[in-house]
Amino acid sequence: MDIVGRSGSGFAFPSQTTYLAHDAGIDAEKTQKAILQVRQWREKGELLFPDFSAETIAQINNQIEYLPPESALGKKRKE
Question: Would you list the domain boundaries of the chain?
């Protein structure tokens, strides 16, 4: 601690910052659509994120980066 202090630095301490915003809030329509989509996935047994079937991955191809190469599952799929 002395070395750090003499160098002009210090140690971080636990803290928390709260940001308050005055925005429009959550879009109720989009929220309901998301809730319905997740409910459908659950009912179909398809909520096993992120392990989609090859067919689903093909459907979403180029829409999102699925299984980034550096992720554990991305490396596994390359093997």
Answer: 2-78
